[in-house]
Design goal:
It is a single chain. The protein has two domains: 4-68, Arc Repressor Mutant, subunit A, CATH 1.10.10; 72-202, no CATH class. Helices cover 46% and strands 17% of the residues. It has eight helices and nine strands. A hairpin with a 2-residue loop joins strand 2 and strand 3. Helix 1 (4-14) packs across helix 2 (32-45) and helix 7 packs antiparallel against helix 8 (187-202). The longest helix is centred in the C-terminal third of the chain and has 16 residues, at 187-202. It comes from Epilithonimonas mollis. InterPro entries: DUF6088 (IPR045738).
Length: 203
């Protein structure tokens, strides 16, 4: 008869290397406490790695770099899927994603309609901040980011260069999604975003 440890290891090894797992993925093999203990033993034996508290994987390896840790963005995405929540990057993370900043954020901050929490990754942290549904109502990936990025810069600080860059990015957004998301933005951001529609119509 297979032990819980063996059953967990078999399930993890059947998945693609680097796939992230939570304790609840193994509750068919035992209760939460028994599963947590088994995972702890497997980590101590070197069979699997603990990526963050309650998140485990058999890491991908590189011949030169060795074990490759999943990115903070990947971890945020699997937590989003598990919680069936919506998330949107804010602050420096949104600026970085749009190319408005080269600064790599130490802490990744997302607005969410899921649980508010902080995931500690050692040198970095992922913060999920609970927000109202309106702040997550954007349906365009680019336009949603633009709203958050411009809020971070602020009405009185945004430069013409930043406005031009944002407009260029928004030209790649689905027009229906852009029209929808413009209605969600503060008026000063709407004015900037409408330029992308006008410029698209000029083509």
């Amino acid at each position: 008869m297979q032990s819980i440890d063996d059953k967990i290891l078999v399930k993890i090894k059947k998945a693609k290397r680097g796939t992230l797992f939570f304790i609840e993925d193994f509750l068919a093999f035992g209760n939460a406490r028994a599963v947590a203990k088994a995972l702890e033993r497997l980590v101590n034996n070197g069979g699997i790695s603990r990526v963050a508290r309650g998140i485990y994987a058999v890491l991908q390896t590189d011949p030169v770099l060795g074990n490759i840790q999943p990115s903070a963005e990947q971890i945020a995405e699997v937590i989003r899927k598990r919680d069936k929540a919506r998330i949107i990057p804010t602050g420096i993370l949104a600026l970085n994603a749009l190319g408005l900043s080269t600064q790599i954020p130490l802490n990744l901050v997302y607005l969410t309609d899921g649980s508010a929490r902080t995931v500690d990754l050692g040198k970095r942290k992922i913060k999920f901040k609970k927000t109202s549904p309106k702040n997550l109502a954007a349906i365009g990936e680019i336009s949603g980011l633009v709203i958050q990025a411009l809020k971070e810069i602020g009405k009185d600080n945004v430069t013409q260069q930043e406005k031009d860059l944002v407009i260029e990015k928004l030209k790649k957004e689905n027009p229906y999604r852009l029209e929808h998301d413009i209605r969600l933005a503060p008026e000063w951001i709407r004015i900037i975003m409408r330029n992308a529609i006008n410029k698209n119509n000029d083509k």
